[in-house]
C-alpha cells in the first residue's frame, strides 16, 4: 500500500469568510506570462470595461445557486441542525472545490464537478469564471467592504506541480506560504493567524486538529461588511419576543424602521419576501414563511423560485422589524460532500495527480465556519443577494415583523452571486 498523504481542505466562512485554499510559501511570483493581460487594474482605479468577460462569472451563478440549495438541504437534514441556526457561504465552498479540481483528474475531477453542478461546463469556463468573479468582488467600494480569496498552505519540503501553483494564482489569486505540519500545534496557530487577518478577527480558531501527514491545506475566505441603505435608529430598538416555535419564545433586541422597501407576499406559497438593501451592489433577501410553513417553503427553494419572487417584488412604504443578532455555524463537510457524490477524493483511489505526480494525495478533512453579525448599521459577514427593482407602487402601509424563523440570502448583485445563505431559527443562539 502506498503511504497516505493528506490534503486538508479548510473553509472559513463568516459573514465574513470562507476558507478554502492551499498555500505554498511566501513567494508570490507565480503569475503566468500573460496573466496581467486579464482583468487586473491598480487598486482604487475604476473597473475597466469587460464586454463579454462579465459573462464568465454570470455563467457560474445559476450552477452555484443549484449547489447552494442542494448543500442547504443536506445541512438542514443533519441531526445536529434540528432547531438550530444554519449559516454558510456557498460561493466560498464552491470556489475552494473548484480550486481543488485544478489538481484533480479522471473520476475525481468529474465527481467534484458533478457535486458543484458543473458537469455541463468546461474547466476553462469554470476557472475563467472565478478569475473574473474574484476581480469583480474584490474591487474596492466606498459603500461596503467585500474581500474574497484563496491561499495554499504547503508543508515544508512538499513541492506541488508548477502548473497547479501557476493556475491557482492565475485564476484564484492564491497566495502561498509554508507551514510546519510536522508540528501540528504550530501549523494550526500559523494558519489560524492567517485566517484571522483575512477575516478581521471574525474567525480565529477554525483549524484545531491537524494531522501530521498533512501536506497541504486549501483555504478560501470571504469577508463582507455592509451598511444598510436605510440604517435603523438605535433609539428605536427595543426588547421584543421572537417565536422560535409554537412552544418557545426568546427575548431579542428588535430593530424598527419605516421606509420604502421591496417586498412580495406569495399567498399561494405561504411566504413573505423582503429585500433589505445595502449601500452598493448587495442586498439581504429575507424569506419569511407563514407560521408553521417553514418546511413547505424550504421545499420550494430553487433558482427558478428565487427568480420568480425577485421578479414579483413591489415597492412600498413599510414598517419593518428585524432582530439584532450575532450567530456562527461550524461544519465538518467531508461526510456531506460524500453523500452528495464526491467520494473518491476522500479515498485511496483519489486522483489528485495534478497537484503532485510523486505523492499520492487524498482529502482528509473539510471544515467550514461562518459568522454573521446584524445590527442597526448593517451586516458583517460574507454574503450575496440578487435584487431587482420593480416600479414603485403606492399601497397602504404594511408591517413586516421578523419575529419568527426566517431564511436569508446575501447576494452581490452585479455578479448575481449568493455569498451567504442561512436559516435564523433562534437569534439568541450564538
Automatic annotation (TrEMBL):
PROSITE patterns: PROKAR_LIPOPROTEIN (PS51257), SERPIN (PS00284)
GO cellular component: extracellular space
Domain Serpin: 69-427
GO molecular function: serine-type endopeptidase inhibitor activity
Organism expressing this protein natively: Chanos chanos (Milkfish)
Keyword Glycoprotein carried by entry: yes
Protein name: Alpha-1-antitrypsin homolog
Gene3D superfamilies: Alpha-1-antitrypsin, domain 1, Antithrombin, subunit I, domain 2, Serpins superfamily
SMART domains in alphabetical order: SERPIN
UniProt cross-references to PANTHER family, sorted A to Z: SERINE (OR CYSTEINE) PROTEINASE INHIBITOR, CLADE A (ALPHA-1 ANTIPROTEINASE, ANTITRYPSIN), MEMBER 1, LIKE PRECURSOR-RELATED (PTHR11461:SF363), SERINE PROTEASE INHIBITOR, SERPIN (PTHR11461)
Keyword vocabulary terms for this entry: Glycoprotein, Signal
Positions with biased composition (Basic and acidic residues): 42-56
Family: Belongs to the serpin family.
Stored Pfam families: Serpin
Cleavable signal peptide: 1-21
Gene coding for it: LOC115810085
Chain spans, region Disordered: 31-56
Entry annotated with the keyword Protein biosynthesis: no
Amino acid at each position: 500500500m502506498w503511504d497516505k498523504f493528506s490534503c486538508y481542505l479548510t473553509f472559513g466562512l463568516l459573514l465574513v469568510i470562507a476558507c478554502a485554499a492551499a498555500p505554498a510559501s511566501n513567494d508570490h511570483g507565480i503569475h503566468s506570462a500573460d496573466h496581467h493581460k486579464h482583468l487586473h487594474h491598480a487598486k482604487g482605479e475604476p473597473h475597466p470595461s469587460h464586454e463579454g468577460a462579465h459573462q464568465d462569472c454570470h455563467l457560474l451563478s445559476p450552477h452555484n445557486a443549484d449547489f447552494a440549495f442542494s448543500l442547504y438541504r443536506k445541512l438542514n437534514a443533519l441531526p445536529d441542525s434540528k432547531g438550530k441556526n444554519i449559516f454558510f457561504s456557498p460561493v466560498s465552498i464552491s470556489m475552494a472545490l473548484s480550486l481543488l479540481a485544478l489538481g484533480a483528474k479522471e473520476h475525481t475531477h468529474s465527481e467534484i464537478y458533478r457535486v458543484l453542478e458543473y458537469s455541463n461546463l468546461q474547466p476553462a469556463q469554470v476557472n475563467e469564471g472565478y478569475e473574473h468573479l474574484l476581480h469583480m468582488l474584490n474591487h474596492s467600494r466606498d459603500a461596503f467592504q467585500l474581500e474574497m480569496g484563496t491561499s495554499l498552505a504547503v508543508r515544508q519540503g512538499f513541492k506541488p506541480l508548477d502548473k497547479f501553483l501557476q493556475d491557482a494564482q492565475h485564476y484564484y489569486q492564491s497566495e502561498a506560504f509554508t507551514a510546519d505540519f510536522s508540528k501540528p500545534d504550530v501549523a494550526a496557530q500559523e494558519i489560524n493567524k492567517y485566517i484571522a487577518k483575512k477575516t478581521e478577527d471574525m474567525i480565529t480558531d477554525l483549524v484545531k486538529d491537524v494531522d501530521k501527514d498533512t501536506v497541504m491545506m486549501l483555504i478560501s475566505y470571504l469577508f463582507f461588511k455592509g451598511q444598510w441603505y436605510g440604517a435603523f435608529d438605535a433609539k428605536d430598538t427595543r426588547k421584543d419576543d421572537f417565536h422560535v416555535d409554537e412552544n418557545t419564545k426568546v427575548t431579542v433586541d428588535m430593530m424598527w424602521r419605516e421606509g420604502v422597501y421591496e417586498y412580495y407576499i406569495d399567498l399561494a406559497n405561504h411566504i413573505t419576501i423582503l429585500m433589505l438593501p445595502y449601500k452598493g451592489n448587495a442586498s439581504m433577501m429575507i424569506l419569511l414563511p407563514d407560521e408553521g410553513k417553514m418546511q413547505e417553503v424550504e421545499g420550494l427553494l430553487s433558482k427558478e423560485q428565487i427568480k420568480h419572487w425577485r421578479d414579483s417584488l413591489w415597492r412600498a412604504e413599510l414598517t419593518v422589524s428585524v432582530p439584532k443578532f450575532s450567530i456562527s455555524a461550524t461544519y465538518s463537510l467531508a461526510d456531506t460532500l460524500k453523500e452528495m457524490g464526491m467520494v473518491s477524493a476522500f479515498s485511496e483511489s483519489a486522483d489528485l495527480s495534478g497537484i503532485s505526480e510523486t505523492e499520492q494525495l487524498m482529502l482528509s478533512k473539510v471544515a467550514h465556519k461562518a459568522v454573521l453579525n446584524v445590527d442597526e448599521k448593517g451586516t458583517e459577514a460574507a454574503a450575496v443577494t440578487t435584487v431587482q427593482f420593480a416600479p414603485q407602487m403606492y399601497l397602504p402601509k404594511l408591517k413586516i415583523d421578523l419575529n419568527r424563523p426566517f431564511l436569508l440570502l446575501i447576494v452581490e448583485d452585479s455578479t448575481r452571486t449568493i455569498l451567504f445563505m442561512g436559516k435564523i431559527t433562534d437569534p439568541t443562539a450564538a
